[in-house]
Write a structure and sequence with these properties.
Jelly Rolls, mainly beta, 1 helix, 159 residues
Length: 159
Amino acid sequence: MGGARGFNAAEEGHVMMILPPIDKGGTSTYNSLYINMEGYQRCQIYLGIGVSAGTGTAILYESDDGSGSSVAAIACHVYKEETGSGDTLGERTAMASTGLTIANTSNIFYVIDITADELSEGYPYLNLRLTALDSTTITCGFAVLSGARYGTDQSPTAQ
């Protein structure tokens, strides 16, 4: 996929804003939209932290539906850019089901990576939950799904 010409996310994948850019500091739990992985092989969630004066936690959940009727926290992988320079992702590391501690640094981001075969049978939905954010934290998140089972030039919804 992609090769020398690159990956066209708008045509070869599906892009979703799952956490609109907003000041959610002080909120006990901030839930993303539910992401339906049923028609895709991989999901990468790009979590951006613009302003931060404290730490928080990001936990990825799988669900049996798009409303969270039955959920379970799951392990996955993450790439971290915690330097504030904006372009120095670290190596792929394991992210436990207990989540990721968001660094107390502004202008950073994370790429949370999971494939469909890592999900439990009957649990095709994903949900990212942010907890214990500092009262000044400004954040946003996008999901990029790839490996579409039925790809077209206009990707179908993944909600």
